[in-house]
């Protein structure tokens, strides 16, 4: 009887113990589920990691690239001016020759005889000219004598006439004597006229003799010129590009040498007419460029590593109706920028880069930072830890960088950070984690894109 009350009071204590044991089991089950979930790799998503580069300001240029074969400003084929047999060759291919240098000689014996014959003819003409001059002097003296004789006859006739008409004394002149003096006067006057005609004739003969001397001088000059044609001379200083004659050859109308000026080289381009505006910016009407002078850079395949400078010398004022192109002439320096190494030569194939326009102080970013959506280009700007989309227009570009102009004025500034790697799937306003900052002139390849956090298979952290 005494044991029942004891059993009744112990029941509530047993129920509390059971409830506590059940709660402990439930907590262990929940903790096991969390550990299992962490072990399966599920965790909170992290912000994507990106690489950035700053926007910089610098000059960007518009470059036109083309290839061309260099040619000499002056290159000619030397042909003989007369036919004959070659007796001497004085120049070989590759020789540098000064202006008026004798390159070859043709048999000149006939030409020398012609010169001597012309010299003799000139001497004969000069002798005839001297004889004609003496005849003029002689006819002049005769004319003077005839005038004196006519004056004396005039005085004699006048005296006889006074004597005949006066009859003052018995010895007065007879009529026959008066008539004789009159005839003498007429003859003297006739002689004066004849001597004057003779003097004029001698003057004409003197001029004819002088003209004969001139003709003889011209013949002598022609003979000397023909003699000079037996020597093939260089019309300007240059290099013998080729020689096609030998001693003993009979030459006529075929070229004997090719002479080229290797100091002055040019590239002649034929550009489509749509580029007229580009070249008009840098070339004035007188061919002098101003602030936008077109500059030329050349690289030759035969001379790797060397850079040569040049300029646009002139452009054609007309467009070819058949091809629709216009002619552009560029002059090039034959030595590289540093003056070392071999020089350019006529006939070399070169790649030309022509700067047709310049933008100073342009906003510039790496090319890999540009993204495109349909026809619209944009960049992702990092403000703090958030990526923001800015629509832009692309300007001038080179191998690594591109000029950008924001559609909204003032939307971009120098120094702002632009996403270069990791922007492919970024949305406007997305949070980002900046991995590092690439320098604006970095040329290293972009790093591999790391996997997202939800794809990681890292082990769960222990608590």
Number of helices: 5
Please indicate the count of domains: 4
Distance between the termini: 56 Å
Q: Which stretches of 5+ consecutive residues score pLDDT under 50? A: 1-23, 37-42, 284-291, 441-463
* Overall number of strands: 22
| Helix/strand structural class | alpha+beta
Listing every helix as H and every strand as E from the N terminus to the C terminus, the arrangement reads HHEEEEEEEHHEEEEEHEEEEEEEEEE
Rounded to an integer in angstroms, the radius of gyration calculated over CA atoms is 56 Å
- CATH homologous superfamily of the largest domain - what is it? Helix Hairpins
Strand content: 25-35%
- Provide the CATH top-level class of the largest domain: Mainly Alpha
Percent range of helical residues: 25-40%
Give me the CATH fold name of the largest domain.
Helix Hairpins
| Shape-level CATH architecture of the largest domain | Orthogonal Bundle
Overall pLDDT confidence: 81
Could you describe the largest sheet, including whether it forms a barrel? 14 strands, mixed
How would you describe the shape? elongated
Layout of helices and strands, plus pairs?
Layout: H1 4-9, H2 11-39, E1 49-54, E2 56-69, E3 71-72, E4 75-78, E5 84-89, E6 96-97, E7 102-106, H3 109-166, H4 175-228, E8 231-233, E9 238-243, E10 250-251, E11 257-260, E12 265-272, H5 276-282, E13 295-300, E14 308-315, E15 325-332, E16 349-366, E17 371-373, E18 376-383, E19 386-397, E20 401-406, E21 417-421, E22 433-437
Helix pairs in contact: 3-4
